[in-house]
Predict the structure.
Amino acid sequence: MQVDAVLVLFCVWLVGAAGKLVQPRGHKLETYKQSRSRRETSSMEGDGGRKSGSPIFKRSPDMTKSPMTKSEQLLRIDDHDFTMRPAFGGPPIPVGVDVQVESLDTISEVDMDFTMTLYLRHYWKDERLSFPSTNNQSMTFDSRLVKKIWVPDMFFVHSKRSFIHDTTTDNVMLRVYPDGNVLYSLRVTVTAMCNMDLSRFPLDTQTCSLEIESYAYTDDDLMLYWKKGNESLNTDDRISLSQFLIQKFHTTTKLAFYSSTGWYNRLYIHFTLRRHIFFFLLQTYFPATLMVMLSWVSFWIDRRAVPARVPLGITTVLTMSTIITGVNASMPRVSYIKAVDIYLWVSFVFVFLSVIEYAAVNYLSTVQERKERKLRERLPCTCSIGNPDDMMIDPQITGYGSTDVNNTGNYGMPDNDSRQERMMAQVALNDPHITHHVKPSRGYVNIWIDTHAIDKYSRVFFPGAYALFNIIYWSIYS
């Protein structure tokens, strides 16, 4: 019994000792958890201090997840009538505009228009859109909100076609600031009219204008202005055209009056274009000049070579006609003369005159031969005349020496009958025993000289006159 009591007391003692050992261990575990929590907290505070510039820690909570902060509720769109302009009944609302030209696509002389792609931005203040903000950050929206608020009703005056780009979505941006300032931007391609003066074409300089105006609001309701003056217009440095050199862009502002509605503010974008001439030199001016020079070759061809001179003249005339037709096919049908028309038609006249020159030479040669033939019939018997072949090489009669006859052969010389007629006519005029029977015809001698002189003088007159025309033409239009 005593042994059992001792064992029971020993067991009770062991249980009590075990309980004391367990309690300090549990206290140490709780202390570890608390110390770990304190370390993690201090670590986060230290990292936050080091990464205070990181946008992750600065970013505000996602407002779209809160049903009470919808954009329409924040801007109080349902509380206002946005069919009316801001400050309706008060002074006109100022609307600033700036433009960035992205590309200048085409310039058409036939349709007299141009196509331009640009970013059109509007700036105004609408206090109805103001909203509370602690960080003064703006809110950006797309085209869905634009349909629910008031925006300026801009349009392009004298435009033929225009559209807002919609790939991949509508290229429209609306940015609203807490104080009610609004930025409205859209990307537009517009084809507008450009009144061109083509009287100096292709040595011309054209000035085209894109005009922007409010459709409904007069200057009593809306004051349209360039936000930064000439600096409101920005262009891409890579803009280039194949036929034109863009010299400058500038802006102006004017008032436009309509008899039925009143005065409107109108903004102008002017750009000056100077045409490249090198293309037209290669395609028009050089071919026309070469055709004129080719027509002068006939002046060095013998006047009796009809199959050579006639096709040459006709070919040059037809080629000039083709050049004129090709140039006019790509031009509008204007009622005034262009610079290129003057050059081409004067060149055509020179080519045509070269054909007329040969017709005159041919006609006078025919008249000369007829007179020689009649003179031969009226001469007495020429039996006393020596050998005609000996007379052919007499320089006093024929004008050609024996060396010339041997070197040139029959080229440039008339046939046997014509030579005999001319020799007998010369003998009849030089022989005093024969001239008392036939009255000398001095007119016949002059005709023979003038016929040869036409080609000779044309070789100098035609090139000289055409060179003088080119000097005057390029000094005026360059």
